[in-house]
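User: For this week's homework, look closely at the record that follows, marking any run of repeated tokens, and judge whether sequence predicts the tokens.
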Amino acid sequence: MGSNATGSGTAFCLRLLPESVEALRESGGTSLTELSGERVQAAMNEYAVTLPWNADFFGALERMVERWVRYFFDHPVERALTAASTLENGWSD
């Protein structure tokens, strides 16, 4: 996919979440991708600390992956930004 598809994905995200533009202005140069990544990281970290990593590592890992998938299902803006930034960085080859 070319840069056209990536640009369209970013425009789609901006239409879905107009407050992202305001957050970008207030961040002093942080990109929309970074803002989205911070939201994903915060949500995942909040859940990760509740899991029994020492007692059942693979069970905790499975629940973490399930939460990760559910997060992106429930948050289409973060999903679209992640896809757009991945395609922009050449991972589609």
Remarks:
- The CA atoms of residues 24 and 35 lie 8 Å apart.
- The mean pLDDT is 77.
- The radius of gyration is 15 Å.
- Helices lie at 3-16, 19-26, 32-48, 57-74, 76-88.
